[in-house]
Design brief:
Elements (H helix, E strand, L loop, with lengths): L2 H20 L5 H58 L11
Helix pairs in contact: 1-2
Length: 96
């Protein structure tokens, strides 16, 4: 048996299992209701996962931006300190 056939049978079995658990009748209308219910559940969960992933990505981007600004500020402060003290290691201005 091909893997495609096995996957198809597994999907069909899962659908029938969900239909039975839902208490559906063996009519076309009932099968349509089960299919719509499963599809709505799937799309709802996919949308929730999308929103959660977008929030996590935004949070990570905000953290990275804050860290980059902090590092830039620290580097600017160090450069400013070096400019005031000179390269000779003294605390005053550089003498010539």
């Amino acid at each position: 048996m091909k893997i495609r056939n096995m996957i198809g049978l597994a999907m069909l079995g899962g659908f029938l299992y969900a239909h039975q658990r839902r208490g559906g009748e063996w009519t076309l209308t009932s099968f349509k209701g089960t299919a719509r219910d499963l599809w709505d559940t799937f799309t709802t969960k996919a949308e929730e996962a999308k929103i959660k992933a977008e929030a996590a990505a935004k949070n990570a981007a905000d953290k990275m931006q804050a860290k980059a600004q902090d590092l830039a500020s620290t580097a600017a402060q160090k450069l400013d300190d070096v400019g005031r003290s000179g390269f000779g290691g003294t605390n005053g201005p550089m003498r010539r």
